[in-house]
Amino acid sequence: MISDNIAKGAQHLADALRYNTTLTTLSLWKNQIGDNGAQHLADALRYNTTLTTLSLWKNQIGDNGAKYLAHAFRNNKTLTTLHLYENQIGDNGTLHLADALQYNTTLTILDLRYNEIGDNGAEHLANVLRNNTTLTTLHLYENQIGDNGAQHLTVALRNNTILSTLNLGRNQIGALGAEHLADALRNNTTLTTLHLSWNKLGVLGAEHLADALRNNTTLTILNLEYNQIGDNGAEHLANALQNNTTLTTLDLKHNEIGKKLEDRLKTLMQRNGQGTKS
């Protein structure tokens, strides 16, 4: 009964959105609208021409709800930001969203954190990212894409010329996934921010990323906190940064790095413009 009433509330909002010409941001954080509520909002988005930001965090939206929303923003010309943080979209729902991105020409920020997305979902996103020319920010924090998912995204990053921020924190990515991402970073010229916190990169993963930083000239922010990098991994990064002058922020908190290497990395980051966090 409660869920039905919430869905009806979403329907009332959707009815108003069809003809509203002033509202640009709608946030429905933690309202349990579910798939039915998502369907009502999606129907409204087919007609609305002013909404630019839609936040549906923690709303128990599954793959069916994602399908409804995907159908709506396939042709929507105004929505630029879609937050779907902490729902249950999964790989199937991600497929629907990826299909829509092939046609959508306005969405620039897609937030899919905490959505039970695995390597298949990452592959769906990678397939569309190869040719997408509008999405600049993709948040995939706290999913389960793993090394295989990282490899799929790597292939996309070799061709993508617009994505500037990629968040892959807490995704069970190890040294092999870091190697794949490093391969992409060597030639990618658009990515400026990469978040890899709370993964399992270790010393070897840090070494792979360090090798890429010797050639990369666009990445400015790299977050590697909680990755068991240690002094050996930090030394690889410090050696690479001797010649890299574009990375300005390096987050290495909680990696058991000694003070000597901390100071060395801080000096290198200060030379580049900001500082390191450790």
Automatic annotation (TrEMBL):
PANTHER family hit by this protein: F-BOX DOMAIN-CONTAINING PROTEIN-RELATED, LEUCINE RICH REPEAT FAMILY PROTEIN
InterPro entries according to UniProt: Leu-rich_rpt (IPR001611), LRR-containing (IPR052394), LRR_dom_sf (IPR032675)
Pfam family, one: LRR_6
SMART domains: LRR_RI (SM00368)
Gene3D superfamilies: Ribonuclease Inhibitor
Protein name stated in the entry: Uncharacterized protein
Protein species of origin: Rotaria sordida
